[in-house]
Amino acid sequence: MGLWIRVGQSAEDLPLAAQPRICGRERRATRMPCGLIVHEAESSSRPRSLFARSAAEALADLWCRRILQGVPHRVCHGQRSQRATRDFQQTAKLVTFMGRFHSYTEVMGKDLPPIEDLQWIAGQIARTEPFREGSAVLCGSICWGVYSWRSDIDIAHFSTLQYPNIDAVVQQVLDGYAERTQGQFIVPRFDVITVGADSLALVAGAPSVSTPPISLGVTDGNAPVSSVFTETAVLFGDHIGSLAALKGDPWRAFVARHLSGVAGDPPGRREAIERYVGAMTTEWERRPLHRLNLGPNGELGSTHLDLMARSENYPVNLMRRILGVASYYPRPDRASDVQDAFVALDRTWSKHLWEHFQPFSTIAPRYEQLVAKCKSSGAPLGGPAYYAELREIFSGLPFAKIQEAVWEYLRS
Q: 314 and 248, same structural domain?
């Protein structure tokens, strides 16, 4: 029988007998009645990794109870149109996490991390001082229990005098995981998104911050929040607000302390959508994966892999932005909830966008198949073949058509 744990509980909190050594194993994903995907361990004689039962299962149980108790949310899974339901049955979900793409060396040199280890790592990060003090919170798919071995660990951070930058704190946790597992697994990456600061000087040149040319501001002593990047703060206000509404603290306290003063006017948010779509389209029009941009043996560098990760999640991020403008942002806001809410808009331009988003739904399963071919004990792929197939996954994606449909939306 599995051992239930609290969300964020660390392996050290468990009895010694319940702290097995870390190892990989096969997993399967189950969709709960409320729509939440929960990853379960297949029966195995091998010991479980870090957790006897994943926190995602406990979170799924909690969320099902909340649904039954009538916690309000903008989109109900039971109210999908027949067409939307058929679409979801016939195609894979667009993307349920911000997935990373890895170098051939990473894929072949290490094992894939057991997905519940990400929850363990997230729990350890949440126990560090910046998180206990309230200047940072976890966010993203891992907070909803919907994640993969490819998932980032996303963090929202408000830069303070005490904690102007938290990259080193988070990296220490990941280094500890790598040491504890003796370097067996690919270590997940983290992404710190700074949503504001007590002083602009705190974030100037910080490695976790890239300053866009929009709406810089700092605390004036009276405002409850200062927006270092108004656009970023507004977007994460939607997401963290969703977590706060349904899960309470620490997200509720973070919103009240750092994001309560953020308000993005609809015209400004629509302009931000136009900039976002324009930048992504332009980036792909420059043919970043052309053979002349690759390494000597066709290798893809970190810049290529990061672009692929951002592009895979492009449809979901764009839908989030549009729903925020329409004041129809879903709670919860997992990718599946975002997709449901977007389909429910049922506008001509939204149908056009939805059609153009469909090719992106093949990226995740095709990449999983590619990694499996590399890991095959029979005839594993070599590096050049791995990179060639990875480039092929991203060929022909309709970025220009998405931009045209967004222009249609902006004119509506």
A: no
Give the model's pLDDT for residue 234. 76
Q: What is the pLDDT of residue 377?
A: 79
Residues 396, 289, single domain; the answer is yes
Buried b (16+ CB within 10 A) or exposed e, 158-196: bbbeebbbbeebbeebbeebeeebeeebbbbbbbbbbbb
**Is 101 contained in some domain?**
yes
Q: Domain boundary residue among 208, 233, 263?
A: 263
Do 215 and 228 contact (CB within 8 A), yes or no? no
Is 362 exposed, middle or buried (CB count within 10 Å of its CB: 0-12, 13-18, 19+)? Answer: middle
Q: Are residues 235 and 301 in the same domain?
A: no
Q: pTM of the full predicted structure?
A: 0.72
- For residues 11 and 293, the model is more confident at 293
Residue 283's domain comprises 85-95+265-412
